[in-house]
Amino acid sequence: MSEIWLATGEATVLAADGQYTDAMPEVLIGSVKGPVGTAFASMTGQVAGHPRMFVIRDLNQQVRPATMMTTKMTVRSNDYVELLGGVVQAATGDAIVDAVSEGIIPKDQVNDLVMIIMVWLDPRCATDPNLDRRDLYRTNYEATKLAISRALKGEPTIDELIANRKTVTHYALEGVFDE
């Protein structure tokens, strides 16, 4: 595989019934020498309400390629931070290591690449007494791995997007336009 300069991908994996554990990561991956490397380095400071952290699988287990994780939602509670830096981070880290192990991310390039992953964690997870942490792990693991794969394969292709332009609509537009 040639040098990866800048690739993007996203995926959505839906929660089990009754859960708020939908995962919708957006991935940016590229060379440490390119625009992704510059963006990665600029994220080392913190922004109020949007924590940024290296993805680790556990203590002393930072993933390769080095990956910075941040949220799409403003963080408002310690319970939210605990889920983000716990189950979600662990699932994300495991997905990255498995993506390397399975050849999705080229193993020989892990020290030349960096990733930024923006994660969605529904705020209701932090207050749900019946939160299924296993489902939170599952959705984030599956969606992260799929988003990375899509980024590196350039999916969906422009031809796929053009072909499904009239058959696929954003869920928020349901009932907005007459069929």
Please count the helical segments. Answer: 4
Mean pLDDT: 93
Largest sheet: 5 strands, mixed
The backbone outline, from C-alpha atoms, is globular
Strand content: 5-15%
Distance between the termini: 44 Å
Total beta strand runs: 5
Nearest-angstrom radius of gyration? 17 Å
Strand order within the widest sheet?
1-2-5-4-3
Helix share of residues?
Answer: 25-40%
SSE string: EEHEEHEHH
Give descriptors for this structure.
globular, 179 residues, 33% helix, 4 helices, 5-stranded mixed sheet
Description:
This protein is globular. It is built from four helices and five strands, in the order E-E-H-E-E-H-E-H-H. The chain starts with 6 loop residues before the first strand and ends in a 16-residue tail after the last helix. Helix 2 crosses helix 3 (133-153). The protein has a five-stranded mixed sheet, sandwiched between helices. Strand 4, helix 2 (78-101) and strand 5 (113-119) form a beta-alpha-beta unit. The protein is an alpha+beta fold.
